Amino acid sequence: MSNDPHIPPGPTRPDPVFTPDAIFFWEGAARGELLGQRCADCRKITFPPRPMCPACHSVKRETVRLSGRGTVASWVIPRHPAPIGFPEAPIVALIELEEGIRMVSNVIDVAASDMKGGIAVEVRFAPTRGGKAVPVFAPAGGGSRG
Amino acid sequence: MAKFAAIAGIGQTEFSKNSGRSELQLAAEASRAALDDAGIDPADVDGMITFTIDNNDEIGLARCLGVKDLGWATRIPGGGAASVATIHQAAAAVTSGACEVVVVWRAMNERSQYRFGQPMAPAGGGLVNVAGNGTGSLLWCMPFGAQTPASWAALSAGHYMERFGVTNRDLGYVSVAQRKYAATNPLAWFYGKPITLADHQASKWIVEPVLRLLDCCQESDGGVAIVITSLERAKDLKQKPVRIAASAQSIPAEVEVISNYYHADLDVMPEAQGVAKRLYERSGLTPQDMQLAMLYDAFTPQVLVQLEAFGFCGQGEAKDFVKGGNIEVGGTLPVNTNGGLIGEAYIHGMNNITEAVRQLRGTASNQVAKMTNALVSCGMAGAILSNS
Closest Cα to residue A123, out of A136, A142, A104? Predict the structure, then answer.
């Protein structure tokens, strides 16, 4: 870590915004769990979270532990303006999870020059400045070569 | 009840980076110009439509115009992606008999008063971006560093570009063509300032490896207004009417504004496909019947996927369609002949509608020969405008 007294220690990543229908997701992330939302009646998994199943219209929602394994569908590096809360430009990626849902996240532990669509990734967790956490992804098996 | 509605008047302020006056004044000046253009007394306006995120208030604008009795006021969600829905819903209101004269407006000081599209960190914590209101962007993108419309749009385009081998250099041809139009359009901010592909490639990365600075629309101050009434009434007014031959909105399942990550096929723009289907069905026209397309161009990749969604070329072919010069004057399908939101100004899509009207009247700076039908699309809404 930096010894520069002007840089406060600890995470700088922005906190997630908690909304009523997605509290379970962020509370799970804070515990190091990647949780999905499933219909308790027809078992359809949906993302982003919602209070009603679009398939059977049940409001009985349940959380399920997701595998945390997926592939990169798309990726970018935001350069300007510099993203707030990121000392270095992150790799932002759209992750397609094994369960058939997609979510926006980051890919860590990989060089930008090695990024491409389709690489296999698995979940990690990154802390945020307010003591929460978000799911991020690293190349599966610890390697970065596709 | 009227069968068709028509655009009877268009108006605008100058497009700048610092208007020096309030957004309400911009709205009032643009509205008055549009009503003068139509030859309608502002007192007779009985309908008003704008965006949900326009900062001006219907009563405030009616107070400026001296409107006697407003009978219809509504707002459209979806930001610029729904800009053409303003005239769609105005046409629906007019043809249903709910009102007779609708003023549609959008006015913003999005360069001088605030920086529309840039994230802000309020004192209470978290991050906000006014350009992301109503979408999932805030919740599911911000903590990962995707905090701007450019980053959301780039992430959305990445899968399509990788699949069809579209490079940032390919996108440059869109930007160069539009800046060429803007260079000969005195209304454009970039009037007299064409760019080369080398300029495009030398501009800084906004979102690597998809968008450079010259792939992005401008930030502009200005106002645009459009007057819609029945075709019958429009025929008796000052201008030759521009008929709304068909109009449509489409918000398909799991589609969001810009942050479009959750629908089945990432390589298409489902909302534009939905708009295209409805427009062609409702008008009985085909892509070959269009002499002009005004395609929402907040960012260059959006032009490519709209060209494909509206059937002007096959899937994955848009980059070569653009590179072949088809979208320039004299090409098979001139596109964004005012310079678009990239070259003329970013009045949230509304200035692309007024350009279609000028083209159909025969008064555009980069006039297309033998205009009959123009397609105007903003992704989640569209219209086919006609001078016949």
Answer: A136
- Report whether B98 contacts B47 (CB < 8 A): yes
Nearest to B125 among A15, A54, A78 (CB): A15
Separation in Å, CA of B118 to nearest CA in chain A: 8
Question: Do A76 and B261 count as a contact with CB atoms less than 8 A apart?
Answer: no
Told to judge if B296 belongs to the known catalytic residues of this protein, a careful annotator would answer yes
Question: Backbone phi, then psi, for A80, in 5-degree steps?
Answer: -145, 130
Q: Which two tokens stand for residue B172?
A: 């440059």
Tell me whether residues A17 and B147 touch, CB distance under 8 A.
no
Q: Note if the bond before B77 is cis, omega within 30 degrees.
A: no
Question: Chain A residue with minimal CA distance to B149?
Answer: A78
Number of other CB atoms surrounding residue B363 within 10 Å? 11
DSSP character string of chain A = ----TTS-SS--SPPPPP-GGGHHHHHHHHTT--EEEEETTT--EESS--SS-TTT----EEEEE---EEEEEEEEEE-SSPPTT-SS---EEEEEETTS-EEEEEB-SS-GGG--TT-EEEEEEEE-TTS-EEEEEEEGGG----
Which tokens go with A107?
């890919």
pLDDT in tens, chain B (388 residues): 789 999 999 999 999 999 999 999 999 999 999 999 999 999 999 999 999 999 999 999 999 999 999 999 999 999 999 999 999 999 999 999 999 999 999 999 999 998 888 887 776 666 777 666 555 667 899 999 999 999 999 999 999 999 999 999 999 999 999 999 999 999 999 999 999 999 999 999 999 999 999 999 999 999 999 999 999 999 999 999 999 999 999 999 999 988 899 999 999 999 999 999 999 999 999 999 999 999 999 999 999 999 999 999 999 999 999 999 999 989 999 999 999 999 999 999 999 999 999 999 999 999 999 999 999 999 999 999 999 9
Interface residue of A23, A104, A121 to substitute, partner B, most B CBs within 10 Å: A104
**Interface confidence: ipTM more than 0.90:** yes
Of B140, B145, B210, the CB nearest to A103: B140
The partner residue sitting opposite A105, judged by closest CB among B126, B127, B144, is B144
Stated pTM of the model? 0.95
